[in-house]
Design a protein that fits this description.
Helices cover 39% and strands 24% of the residues. The protein contains 9 helices and 10 strands. The relative contact order is 0.16.
């Protein structure tokens, strides 16, 4: 079966006043249909850039990205907009809801430019809200009258209203307490059981454990769980090896830059 996402050798290079800056370095990634994938990485690692490319919000500088068998580089801007509105759903940490609009109207927003009559849009929004487990008595409330967990459920319902095949979630539990975050993650699991492909960005290992598979991104490169453990173990060994020499040499001794140690361990070039 054709994978939902198939990325091969993708680079994303930005031109800045200081020169050219690579945010992604030869990234390759395959996500099966119906898979729940977590992408972990520290700030500045390239995970947001990768999410923007996977979500067709940005284009790679070089490399290939096939979305459900379609080469994204062959699509026009209008084609990309159609793909985003019909095949992809997005959930963000900050919810991005209209505070004074009702829950139902917020979920109906992605259908504004569709050919559906108003009654069918409302029915689709109602079904999406039911699917995420939000009680009906909240549907006519304004979104700013809801709790954080309820707002995130509304945001997930909005991502589902077009019946997308792939859902991208960027730190969806970042603004939530532990219990509410668990409720949101169970909602994603239900979506997966209904055949949706989930790609989630997080910095929290406990959130990543909900996924079928986790990949790690550092310095614009992807690593598997095993490679990440090897990387961290190598850093620990390097720190331990440097410790005694630094203590004996005093404060004026030379301390290797962490980026240089990373280069020795994994061959990742320093910027």
């Amino acid at each position: 079966m054709t994978p939902a996402i198939d990325v091969r050798g993708v680079w994303r290079i930005y031109e800045t006043a200081a020169g050219y800056t690579p945010a992604l370095r030869g990234v390759s990634l395959t996500v099966a249909r119906g898979e729940f994938l977590a992408i972990m990485g520290p700030s500045g690692s390239g995970k947001s850039t990768l999410m923007n490319i996977l979500g067709c919000l940005d284009r790679p500088t070089t490399g290939s990205y096939r979305l459900e068998g379609i080469e994204v580089s062959d699509l026009s801007e209008d084609d990309l907009a159609h793909v985003r509105s019909s095949r992809l759903g997005f959930v963000f940490q900050s919810f991005n809801l209209l505070p004074r609009a009702t829950v139902l109207r917020n979920v109906m927003l992605p259908l504004v430019y569709s050919d559906l009559p108003p009654r069918d849009r409302e029915l689709a929004a109602w079904r999406a809200l039911r699917s995420v487990g939000l009680p009906e008595e909240h549907y006519l409330h304004r979104s700013n009258e809801l709790s954080g967990g309820q707002m995130q459920r509304v945001a997930i319902a909005r991502a589902l209203v077009n019946d997308p095949t792939i859902i991208f979630a960027d730190e969806p539990t970042g603004n939530l307490d532990t219990a509410t975050g668990e409720m949101v993650m169970r909602t994603f699991q239900r979506m997966q059981r209904r055949g949706k492909t989930i790609v989630l960005i997080t910095h929290d290992p406990e959130v990543a454990e909900w996924a079928d598979r986790t990949v790690h991104i550092r310095d614009g490169r992807l690593f598997s769980d095993e490679e990440e453990r090897s990387y961290l173990a190598g850093l620990a060994r390097a720190e331990a090896a440097d410790g005694p020499s630094r203590e004996g040499a005093g404060a004026s001794s030379f301390s290797p830059d962490p980026a240089q140690r990373r280069t020795k361990i994994l061959g990742v070039p320093c910027l």
